[in-house]
Amino acid sequence: MQSAQAVAGQTGGDLYGTSVQDQYLVFTLGGKQYGVDLIKVQEIKEWEEPTPMPGTPNEVRGVLNLRGVVVPIVDMRLRFDMSDAGFTRETVIIVTRIQGRAVGLVVDSVSDVISLSEGQFKKAPTVEGFDDHHMKGIAALDDGMVILLNADNLLSVEALQL
Questions:
Q1: Least confident of 14-23, 120-129, 130-139
Q2: How far is the C-alpha of 60 from the C-alpha of 79, rounded, in Å?
């Protein structure tokens, strides 16, 4: 009889949906819910105006110095071609590890950490003309759906080169 750990290792996740790979930090943008792998999240900071950098892509608001590390700050509303809603007390910066470097993602608010169980993860739908490389899939929850993002494919090469 194999241990749960051995079986989980073969399937790439925890049998009960509680491994770190199955946990997502849920945030909102324009009233919609998105999730990013919890293991990619370094910290959550309250909104702070970054130092603008000339010649950067539109979605890059600037850079912040976080404990001696210069971190590019990307406005996810602009990245997803949404209207600019301004910044509120709930606006936060999710500092993530994307392709081996720290990057701050500006979001409207952070709401929860979810652990997915079997059957809640759905593959991203295929729609002709829609570029879904930044999506992992969709989490079907009792209170709605969460678009699960692939952090490593989320940003442009230009945004990551700052």
A1: 14-23
A2: 9
Please state the separation of Cα 157 from the chain's center in Å.
17
Going through the chain in order, the beta strands assigned E by DSSP cover: 23-29, 32-37, 41-46, 60-66, 69-75, 92-98, 101-107, 109-115, 121-123, 135-141, 144-149
List the helix and strand counts (H, then E) for the chain.
3, 11
| Architecture field, domain 4-160 | Beta Barrel (2.40)
Neighbouring-strand partners of residue 92: 46, 107
Nearest 10 degrees: Cα torsion 66, 153, 162, 75: -60
For the chain, what are the domain ranges?
A: 4-160
Cα→Cα distances 148→11, 62, 138, 139, Å: 19, 25, 5, 7
Q: How far apart are the first and last CA of the chain?
A: 51
pLDDT of the residue at 154: 79
